[in-house]
Write a structure and sequence with these properties.
288 residues; Amidohydro-rel; TIM Barrel; Amidohydrolase family protein; hydrolase activity; 12 helices; 13% strand; alpha/beta; seven-stranded parallel beta sheet
Length: 288
């Protein structure tokens, strides 16, 4: 079984985001960076959700987590708003196959109320914030975000916090030290980190060793062959094997490509199985 823990499919408001809107986003696949060598899959070119679901089947992905977006970043590539209601609409089209995560504007005073409605009424499995992409970039340990974390704890859901060199004015916004301040205060809440604080993988490892409620969602920062991820494999195969989640981060890469590249890493069999499905099943409360 394979569970993809972070997708943004060709549906509704997702289609206004790059790379679905290549002209608006302005990214160049020949430019050095995370999009280097990008070959858009057919579902991106056709902007067709049914084609995407066929690609899920072809990649052997059984379930996927649809993460909304509430980014006011100045970057046209990352900027976008996909409401919990849009995610709910999509998830219900493919009920039992897709699971929703509600995106919140981290600095919106109404964010805790939106989170509560999203979980209680719309059935969202977790909430997602991207502090570095707020209109006023902030750190994940900003006191103004504490009501969001407290709400997640009261609802019993996980929190996704996207952190990497892409978010925020400088690398301090992806520093795992800031993350430690949060996970240490909320030890019963799972915190899932898309991009996994790259390039701070060593510091991220240290914080993860201390706090088992901290999960890596390293997506393309791990599986792309030109990313420097070799050093983390010993930890992924041993002490951190229960804290790693596979995610394609589609449409940044196609599903089949992501699965193939993930499996090509130097995994021990048990650790690979946990990363592809075991850990995700536990977080989503799926029966074996």
């Amino acid at each position: 079984m394979i569970i993809d823990f972070r997708i943004r499919p060709p549906f509704g408001d997702f289609l206004s985001m790059g790379p679905f809107d290549v002209k608006a986003s302005g990214f160049d696949p020949d430019y050095p960076g995370q999009m280097y060598g990008y070959i858009p899959p057919r579902s991106v070119r056709t902007r067709d959700i049914s084609v995407f679901m066929d690609e899920m089947d072809a990649a052997g992905i059984d379930y996927a987590v649809v993460a909304g977006r509430a980014s006011t970043s100045s970057s046209t590539f990352s900027k976008g708003y996909v409401s919990p209601d849009v995610v709910y609409e999509l998830v219900n089209l493919y009920k039992g196959r897709l699971f929703g995560v509600a995106a919140l504007d981290a600095l919106d005073p109404q964010a805790p109320k939106i989170a509560e409605r999203s979980v209680r009424e719309l059935g969202m499995r977790g909430i997602s914030i991207e502090p570095g992409w707020c209109s006023e970039p902030c750190y994940c340990d900003d006191p103004r975000l504490e009501p969001i974390y407290e709400t997640a704890a009261s609802l019993g859901v996980f929190v996704m916090i996207t952190m990497s060199y892409l978010l925020g004015p400088d690398l301090s916004y992806s520093d795992p030290l800031r993350l430690e301040h949060v996970v240490s205060r909320h030890r019963n809440t799972p915190f899932l980190i898309p991009h996994a604080c790259w390039p701070h993988f060593i510091s991220m490892s240290a914080v993860s060793f201390k706090y088992p409620n901290l999960y890596w969602v390293p997506d393309f920062f791990f599986y792309l062959p030109f990313m420097p991820s070799v050093d983390i494999m010993p930890a992924f195969n041993t002490a951190l094997k229960k804290q790693v989640l596979f995610a394609s981060s589609y449409p940044v890469r196609g599903l089949e490509e992501a699965v193939r590249l993930w499996k090509e890493k130097a995994w021990e069999p048990e650790a690979l199985q946990l990363s592809l499905s075991g850990n995700a099943s536990r977080l989503l409360n799926l029966k074996p």
